[in-house]
Amino acid sequence: MTAELVRGQNHPLPDTRLEIRVSAGHPVVAGATLGDERGRVPGVEWVAHPVSPSLPGVDVPRRAAADQHLAVDLAAVPDAVHRVSVLLALPVGSGGPASFGTAAAPFVAVTGPDGAEIASYTITGLGSESAVVALELYRRQGAWKVRAMGQGYEGGLAALLGDQGLERPADLAATILEAESRHAAPASGPVPTPTPAPTATPAPTAAPAPSAPSAGGPIDYAHPRRRTASPAPEPVPAPVSAPQASQGSQPPQGPPVPVAGDAAGWSMDERLYNQVWGMFEDLARTAAAYRSACDFAESRLDRELDEALSDPRARIGGAGDAARSAARARHDELVARAQEVLDRDLAQLAVESEVVEPALPPAYARWDNPVWHAYRPPAEGAMAVRLGDLHLPERTDLRIPMLIRLPLERGLWVDSKAGHSEAADLLDETELRRLALDSAVAHAARLLAAHPPGEFALHVVDAAGAGAAALAPLVDTGVLAAPPARGAAGVSAVLQQLTERVDLLQMALRNGAADALPPGLDTARQLLIVHDFPHGFDDRAVTRLRYLADEGPGVGVHLMMVADREDAAAYGPVLDPLWRSLLRLTPVPDDHLADPWVGHAWSYEPPLLPPGSRVLRQVLAQVAEARPVKRP
Prior knowledge:
This protein is of the alpha+beta class.
């Protein structure tokens, strides 16, 4: 699991061969220094930079770019080296930002030799600094760790190198920046990242912000999440849709092809899944960078206003007014630049979404996507299912599919209680409960449709029979393993059957005797929908339910609760672990999903069926018809 670091936090490194990926959204010079036990750099020969990119165990890029990759082999560095510092500096004369505080926050990720992300760090809180120590890899008692640094230098690269003990740091800094300025092409605005030739290995997490489209030309669809090789001599532009193509380009033949479609070695579902997650991470990071820039602008304005007011001479006459006006002008300029970058990134994501959304397979698609009308049960299970959409207030019409990997690692809870959203305030309790069960039925239908016939079984507990109308599509099409369980006896019977199944499968797996399972045992994954909890549940049934939530997913038994937590308040804290173990969904739009990575509260929208649509029943009928006939 990726460790998302904050400034000063460290994390152990499980491997000595690493790749460090930098995503800045604008060109940066990347380098590294090798330090001794005190962190001092003895000489220029211990610094890897674009002019001299290779040292024992360290290789850095030769050019400034928005996305950088550094290769590190800690087993190959000299024994005297105890610290490897990763440096970032802004090139001069490139037309890019003059300081990190006026651009998107750089993102740094440390990955292992298999491409799996070990740790990541978003470098926030920078202002007028033009150079920064991003990360430090250090040796402690024979083991290597990574520490998030984020130490910026207003004096630029020379001040950074001097702080690490290098003699005559200004000479080396000038050599590095002058060499880079000879390569950089002058530009009046953001420099678009060139489209590299894609490879087949997508980066697993932490997508960089999309590159800016070149003015007047076709939009660059190359998704930055994929690892890239060196640029091809004449890169072939990714396919674009007709509205975005330049007038001189040939219109594409047929429907637009998503970016992920050009990657070899992966199935289309895998490519699209990775691309959707890349879009999610791009939106998260570009919004975080915008908010960070605005917060910095506000804090700097407050500080400058306080300084102006603290000087008695500035409070009298025009000097104070001029200082305050200048501070507000600087604040407005920073916010305007941040807004410009945000608008550019959001426009790129919106165009990408318009291309990707129509190409999604049924498991990833909205219910109004025409792909559902041609649905046929799959021969292989899907990677994930779409359980709704996510968006941020910076652009509410840009919705990212909320894809959850299969098999489910935790149960689901469709909350039938009125939350704090405006949509919930407009509905009464009865209508919310109805919508909650409708949402649960739609989620269950997606899960059935995402699995091959006969590999996913569905059970329902409706103790009071209050959900008969909403459950009708499942009952009428015959996709249920048995009729909905009613009353306390029905609840007890279903829970006993599933808990015995979990016990049997766990014993077989622990003893390595999977081939000794009863020949008639249904090997399909099981989903239990519990409606109107805790009606019909006694203490024994509640204990079994908690057992299923904790132990069931590991052996293919999953739980979906449709309930209001307050209805079970009589059980007190006994049920707290149950609710915490479930992924909470809502039947109406709500902003309850917190993102620990960047601190966003994502707005969630459930996957609603179009009014009057019969697509749900059609899909369930296809699933029921394709199920293998069980012989006695």
